[in-house]
Amino acid sequence: MTPSKHEGGAFGGIDDLYREVILEHFKAPRNKGIVSSASHQADGVNPLCGDQIKITARIENGKLTDLKFEGQGCAISQSSASMMTAAIKGKSIAEAQSLTRDFKRMFGLEDAELQQKDSKHEESLGDLEALEGVKKYPVRIKCALLAWNTLLQALENSQ
Ligand code: ZN
User: Fold this and answer.
1) Which residues, chain by chain, have CB under 5 Å from ion ligand 1?
2) Average pLDDT of the segment spanning 118-125
3) Residue 140 C-alpha to ligand 1 middle, in angstroms?
């Protein structure tokens, strides 16, 4: 048998272009660290894979003026966290929730809590679309969603 081009590893089946985007965020994560004087924070774990994410944020006047993550785990969990902070930092809480909903929808998931605020808008998710290939691997979706679910927790967890 000749080995398939997409065979093996955490990235099996994900297109090369997307793999590059994911690896680029994994190697050079955006907004890595802890926000000093954070107003909101949460810790998330994905026991299936061993991924850990800590989100810290400063929210002022309804906007996420600063947002960082710390963590360890697989490339998908960590690059998703990096992309999440890059996409969300500077946004309002409502925009953060909306983008999280759009991101989950990319995997065919609907969040009941968020759905009620549904405004049916669909915008390009940019780099985040690199993670769409993960949806073929249900176990990996948990890796991709960890940072986003932890963000939602952080929004509820003021210090
Ligand atoms: Zn993982």
Assistant:
1) 49, 51, 73-74, 77, 143
2) 60
3) 6
